[in-house]
Specification:
Blueprint (H helix, E strand, L loop, with lengths): L6 H27 L8 H20 L11 H24 L7 H35 L5 E7 L1 H12 L7 E8 L7 H4 L3 E4 L3 H7 L4 E5 L5 H11 L5 E5 L2 H5 L13 E3 L7 H36 L5 E7 L5 E7 L23 H9 L6 H7 L3 E3 L6 H10 L12 E3 L1 H6 L5 H16 L3 H17 L4
Parallel strand pairs: 1-2, 1-4, 2-3, 4-5, 9-10
Antiparallel strand pairs: 5-6, 7-8
Helix pairs in contact: 1-2, 1-4, 3-4, 10-12, 13-15
Length: 465
């Protein structure tokens, strides 16, 4: 089966395991606790299906079906134990607390029995699947198309280290891209030169590369940064060969005893369960906000329409998640044709801003139509502010690391927005950028809540810039 569909196998066995453990549990529950005769009724069949479905949803929320070819056995054990504990607690509160029992000891017995049944029955097929996959990777039957980027000697050393591992790390190295010229080392090692660095995008796309290993000299930190920035737009996993400084400062995190010393540059920024909760929070707050703010929307619409000519809602193309363009919604805060001479950023005493527009900008009410962008899935409540392509080009010319912003959905508010407000020039955009990059690398629900809290304070005080 192709790698991209292999998660279906895990899902199928999880569904069957959840159903089987629920049926056996009910047999124990009816026979030994409630002292009734066990029978497979229509109610049991329906509850078994629903319970199995709920387990699948829980596993999906917690990210079990992502990167199934990169699972390992120890993590599988800890995941199943923690996730089963969460699921069993939910089942008890929803379904089992109204059971007819003799003593509270029966509750503890039921909890332990269901917990152990679910862990054991779920664990067996999973560990077989994971072990089979791990063995296939170690025996070079399964792997990930990989290239090495760096100078020829460092690329050769890295290639030989990976090839000489006791157990394969899963890297199918197709060749290397050189950054400093040098002779082709294929005759010495079997490592083929694929081309020059300026051909990197074409090579990665044509050969469907999944992972890139950067193998430069430890002193070439600037070169490493430039390569990472250039790869930010490409859908590849990036790893850097560790040097002694990286090891001593704790940057190297090993999952495998037999693996090569590689630093993962772009790991998951947010656990899958937090991503799901973030989306739920986005939808819930946006819908509630639209309902509560509806009277204010009507009042603002009247002031905007009577205050100056033009549409009430201003639409503009911005660049969002994975560099996809979308139309952002805002209450119009400027006079029409305010950019007839080309794209311009607003300033503190900008004559293009209407009277009601100045109020809306201070209270951030002009941004509230973006709740509809959030519902559509184009934006999040919290995330880096989306920019126009015109200004993105100017920013990247001075700060190439801006490309990393596209890893996440843009937001109505951001860390940079809270700190700086509206940027008046490219330099302020770049100053705001470092906080947005910090957000991208430290995403969490708690950080989102803090940023939303300070945004509300700015709105209530009317201190927005």
């Amino acid at each position: 089966m192709r790698k991209k569909y292999f998660w279906y196998v895990y899902l199928f066995f999880d569904f069957i395991s959840a159903g089987l453990s629920w049926i056996i549990f009910n047999y124990f529950r009816k026979t030994y606790i409630e002292k009734f005769e066990f029978e497979i009724s229509k109610k049991l069949i329906i509850s078994t299906f629903l319970i199995s479905l709920l387990w699948i949803i829980l596993y999906a929320i917690l990210g079990n079906y992502k990167n199934v070819y990169k699972k390992y056995r120890l993590k599988e054990i800890t995941q199943i134990t923690s996730q089963t504990f969460i699921g069993i607690i939910l089942i008890f509160f929803i379904l089992l607390l109204d059971d007819n029992i003799n003593t509270y000891q029966d509750y503890y017995t039921l909890f332990v029995v269901l917990f152990l049944l679910h862990i054991i029955i779920t664990f067996l097929p999973r560990i077989i699947l994971t072990s089979r996959t791990v063995n296939q990777i170690h025996n070079k039957k399964i792997g990930f198309k990989t290239i090495i980027i760096g100078n020829s000697e460092k690329a050769k050393d890295t290639y030989l280290e990976i090839c000489n591992l006791k157990k394969s790390s899963g890297h199918f190295i197709l060749g290397y891209i050189y950054t400093n010229g040098g002779k082709d080392v294929i005759n010495e090692t079997g490592l083929k030169k694929l081309g020059a660095y300026n051909e990197i995008s074409q090579i990665i796309n044509n050969k469907k590369i999944e992972e890139v290993i950067i193998a430069t000299e430890p002193r070439e930190h600037e070169k490493i940064n430039n390569i990472i920035n250039d790869l930010a737009d490409l859908k590849v996993e990036i790893k850097v060969v560790a040097d002694m400084y990286s090891i001593l400062t704790g940057s190297v995190k090993m999952n495998s005893i037999f693996g090569a010393l590689l630093i993962s540059v772009n790991p998951e920024m947010m656990p899958s369960w937090q991503k799901t909760l973030k989306r739920i929070m986005d939808l819930f707050i946006s819908i509630i906000a639209i309902i509560i703010l509806s009277p204010i929307f009507i009042i603002l619409s009247v002031f905007i329409k009577t205050g100056s000519k033009g549409e009430i809602i201003f639409k503009q193309e911005r660049i969002g998640y994975k560099n996809e363009p979308f139309k952002i919604y805002k209450f119009r805060s400027m006079y029409i044709d305010s950019e007839k001479n080309g794209p311009q950023l607003s300033s503190k005493h900008d004559s293009r801003i209407t009277n009601i527009g100045r109020f809306m900008r201070k209270t951030r009410l002009d941004e509230t139509p973006q709740f509809f962008n959030v519902i559509k899935g184009e934006m999040s409540l919290v995330g880096p502010r989306p920019e126009r392509q015109y200004f993105i080009k100017k920013i990247i010319a001075k700060a190439p690391h801006y490309k990393h912003i596209s890893k996440v959905k843009p937001g109505i508010t951001s860390w940079g927005q809270v700190k700086y407000g509206y940027a008046e020039n490219v330099e302020e955009m770049i100053a705001r950028l470092k906080f947005d990059l910090l957000y991208v690398e430290n995403m969490s629900l708690s950080l989102d809540i803090k940023i939303l809290f300070y945004t509300v304070i700015i709105m209530l005080r009317g201190t927005g810039k």
